[in-house]
Amino acid sequence: MEGQEKLKKSKVVKIDSQESWQHHISHANNKVVVHFSAFWCITSTLMNPLFEELASTYQDAVFLNLDVDEFKEIASKFEIKAMPTFVLLNGGTPVDKIIGANPDEIKKRVHHFIHSAPSHK
Fold it and tell me: One Pfam match, by short name (predicted)?
């Protein structure tokens, strides 16, 4: 059946509240990748399949999707000025920021982050 593929559970968590953000940041195993996006931004939307692929590949990390219009204060805290922006957090601290829709660069830097950042499980 064609629809079966779409029924797979997403490995990306869509942030839907401040509480959800706090929970996922504080309970993560120290490696978090955040996709700061906006529903109206075509390039952000185009990055969603790549972000899903990365989340499936690197299951030890937490992958979060956050709409900057819904959570302006969080976006402001991370100085998000363009979408898409990907922020890599280790222990809640930003260690890298990727601005723009460059799939090869995103893959390379997420791979490096996952394999070089210490995990404190």
Answer: Thioredoxin
